[in-house]
Design a protein that fits this description.
By secondary structure, this protein is α/β, with parallel strands linked by helices. It has 14 helices and 17 strands. The strands form four sheets. It has a seven-stranded mixed β-sheet. A hairpin with a 2-residue loop joins β13 and β14. The protein is globular, with a radius of gyration of 22 Å. 46% of the residues are buried. Bound molecules: pyridoxal-5'-phosphate (PLP). The site of pyridoxal-5'-phosphate has 15 residues, from α6.
């Protein structure tokens, strides 16, 4: 039995899909201990939007460590934190005319979500929070209460109260207006649904199967929240930080969330960092009312500050949109060439996927792709969606290489399946 099997908990999961021992990584590539190179279409589940060990970020980090810059500081003031707050304000908030205060909870996405839910409850004095079908917000109890996945919810081992689930855009298929239902129950004092403290939404549900909410639906949802005094929380932990082509996933939607959660690629380097942005009038926590030992990790501030350079001007954003187009075209071609199965193209920007009508296929294709040196994961309630999350910084040529591997893997799997049936 190897070290991991004998010493690490059974809860480990990605290592089961990718049975390698990884050792080093650069850009779009990750190498195992035997020196084998893998093209990374996973990007740390969205935590590595600028690839592995980006040279500019690495330089700043090394300089900071070499000069004995503060590593741990709880929430005392540091020069690294000040530099991040100023740069974030200048590069992201001010150009958008956004006025928000920034809170640093513990360094993971679920810490940001927990803080946002507590804050919304404190602001409104109400208890319930509305989440959406197939939403994913993290593994702690509050986040799980607004997460859809049955297996993850069951892991809580306790009931997950104070949350209501509403149908996401498109959940009921065809022309059914899912928001119409939410609106009707809010408007009806006999509906049995209390006015919630907050609504928490991903504009594109990444873990839940790459379900894209339409801009119109999101605008109507924001209007509905405003009408009922409900805090409108956007969880941009996975699809923010540029994944859909602009820094915030809602930049082009024309909405102004009350609260925004960011984490994953915020540090740009895979270092843990999370923020909750709130409108100044919602900044109501008393000092220390929500805290945590690892709030605002200084080395992460250093790389996060440098990563904001990507968002000065529109060049990077335009590149992301173009590469997203390449991904969409490539996947459509793969889907059109598959015999006997149908695969629906989903996604926005550089988060794209294929939803197969045969749920086992996505996992089989991901496994076959691994044998050809590509890391790619699955999403959706039945893992039926092949989910592409390459680094935003990837070269077009490497993007094409990954798409070719997916094409080959899909054909290999389907031909294998045919052989199995005829045997
Ligand atoms: N919210 C969203 C949208 C996520 O995708 C995730 C993680 O995948 C989380 C919250 C939880 O983040 P973390 O795993 O860092 O706690």
């Amino acid at each position: 039995m190897n070290t991991f099997e004998s010493l690490e908990s059974e809860v480990r999961s990605y290592c089961r899909t990718w049975p390698a021992v990884f050792d080093r990584a650069q850009g779009d590539s990750i190498y195992d201990v035997d020196g084998r190179q893998y093209l990374d279409f996973f990007s740390g589940a969205g935590a590595l939007n600028y690839g592995h060990n980006h040279p500019a970020l690495k330089r700043k980090l090394i300089e900071y460590i070499e000069r004995d810059g503060i590593t741990h500081s709880l929430d005392t003031h540091t020069s690294a934190k000040r530099a991040f707050l100023d740069r974030f304000d200048e590069t992201i908030l001010q150009p958008r005319g956004m006025r928000y205060k920034t809170m640093f909870p513990g360094p993971t996405g679920t810490n940001a979500v927990e803080s946002a839910l507590k804050l919304a409850r404190k602001i409104t004095g109400r208890e319930t929070v509305v989440g959406f079908t197939n939403g994913f917000h993290g593994m702690t109890l509050g986040s799980l209460s607004v997460t859809g996945n049955a297996m993850k919810r069951a892991g809580a081992g306790v009931s997950l109260p104070n949350a209501t689930c509403m149908p996401f855009d498109g959940y009921l298929g065809g022309e059914t207006d899912t928001l119409g239902y939410f609106e009707a129950v809010l408007d009806d004092s006999g509906s049995g649904v209390d006015t919630p403290a907050a609504v928490i939404i991903e504009t594109v549900q990444a873990e839940g199967g790459i379900n894209v909410a339409s801009f119109d639906w999101l605008r109507r949802l924001a209007d509905l929240c405003a009408r009922f005094g409900i805090m409108f929380i956007v969880d941009d932990i996975q699809v923010g930080c540029g994944r859909t082509g602009s820094f915030f996933s809602f930049d082009k939607v024309g909405i102004e969330p009350d609260i925004i959660c960011l984490s994953k690629s915020l540090s740009g380097y895979g270092l843990p960092l999370a923020t909750v942005l709130m409108k100044p009038e919602h900044d109501v926590f008393s000092p220390g009312e929500h805290n945590g030992t690892f709030r605002g990790h200084n080395p992460a501030f250093v790389t996060a500050t440098e990563a904001l350079s990507f968002w000065e001007g529109d060049t990077f954003s335009d590149e992301v949109l173009l590469k997203g187009q390449t991904m969409g075209d490539g996947l459509r071609e793969i889907a059109d060439g598959l015999d006997g199965v149908s695969a629906e193209l989903r996604g926005r920007g550089m988060l794209k996927g294929l939803a197969f009508d045969r749920p086992d296929l996505a996992g089989l294709v991901a496994r076959a792709a691994f044998t050809h040196g590509l890391l790619i994961e699955t999403a959706g309630p039945d893992d039926e969606v092949l989910k592409l999350l390459p680094p935003l910084t990837i070269e077009e040529e490497r993007l094409e290489t990954g798409l070719e591997i997916i094409h080959a893997a899909a054909h290999e799997v389907l031909e294998g399946a045919v052989e199995e049936v005829s045997r």
